[in-house]
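User: hey, got a sec? need Metallo-beta-lactamase domain-containing protein folded
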Amino acid sequence: MGNKRTLRTCEIYFIGNAGVLISADDTSVLIDGLYSSRGGEFPVSPIPGDVLNELYSRRGPLPEPDYLVFSHPHYDHLSEKLLDSYLDTHPSGSVYLPEGTSSAYVRSLYNMKQRGNTYEIITGKERQYRPGKDLEISFYKTRHLGKNFKQTLHYCILITISSCRLLFTADVDFFSESLSQFSQVPLNAAFVNPFLYHNEEGQKILRNTLQAEHTYIYHVPFEENDKYHIRHMINKDLYRYRKTTPAVLLCTPRQNEKLTLKEGEQTYDVLYRKSQQ
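Assistant: Yep! Here you go:
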């Protein structure tokens, strides 16, 4: 009886595109969840109106985010307009976003300064933060997929929330990035885009390097916006790799997944491993 451990749960809510809201022990983090679908070659589904209303109004099943985190300043991961309007009514949220240069980005940064918002501009190869007792956020600079985006400041994001460790790979270039910096990190879950999961190079990373307990596929358009039939492709891949790298497709607004782990597990501290050596 004395060895009994308490079960803890991390809630995962899918917002749309690469937007994910995670929550555990009264702490919530929104990752790439205020974005735009304004256009571009890749189909991006907009945030459903009712989901956006729940984020803004503090009503409904979605917990209110305490922190806003962004992987890179592309419109389908960060909408400066939505960020501004959100912070107008939620001034207490802390914001973590990579450095950008667009006029909209500069204007949003100015507005945050004027409002007195708490924020961090992410630069450099690696940045780590511990904004709360049970929250660690770490940014690792990685190349963005595609030759056209080689100058984009892009980060993979590692979040530890109440001992649950989650890796968000966003649009990482899995051809040139091995993600070996995470090879010794015990991951409860890894979030990857459909092209990483589809490609054999990405599969090697999932099988041999990350070895996460759970894999989630995001950055997939809703059915009505899927003009390139990405969902069909990824469903075939899910069947093909069901035994070697099983995964869950995040494709429905408010889709809720739960990760449960026992307290006392996953004690490896990725943020301070160097200082403890």
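Quick note: The two ends are 35 Å apart (CA to CA). Let me know if you need anything else on Metallo-beta-lactamase domain-containing protein.
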